[in-house]
Amino acid sequence: xxxxxxxxxxxxxxxxxxxxxxxxxxxxxVRGGLATVMPNESSDYVTGSDExxxxxxxxxxxxxxxxxxxxxxxxxxxxxxxxxxxxxxxLGDVAEVSHLPPSVMAQYYFGKANSQVRPYVGAGLNxxxxxxxxxxxxxxxxxxxxxxxxxxxxxxxxxxxAENWFANASLWYMDINTDVHTNAGTFDTDIDPIxxxxxxxxxx
Length: 204
What we know:
The protein has 204 residues and is mainly beta. Helix content is 7%, strand content 62%.
């Protein structure tokens, strides 16, 4: 995690300038950048003491925020589909799954509306849609995942570097639980990823 945060901090520091942000009531802004989903998975045992393992994936993330007041905002997270390989230690790769994790967050921004640096926190709801499930290998020949509905939380920071433009870095936590249905059985799986996103934003 430190390896992800340090480059983001360096980017934010490099982009700092005398310009100030304008996160005022009624403002709308969009953020875009790269988002890496890092599952913190656990599941029912598949074979012996083997659990399902899910690899990381990086895609383009986009957020849309409306400021209700100078301190409070509402944000929607969208992204291009994330695709993960599912495996176990003994069986190797058993499936490939894609998903979209749209989330709605209520946010609180620290500092003043015209502050150059504005940290924020958020909490809300996530709905994860799984699709394009593909079985891999010879043991698992059929796979299907239930969609998930759960809580989400975030921390982030915006740093202005030009008129209407700002750099952004954020961390998200999503409570994602699904039943993985296969020809070999059904396995209750907690994915619960941490998502790191870094990019730029524009205020309208």
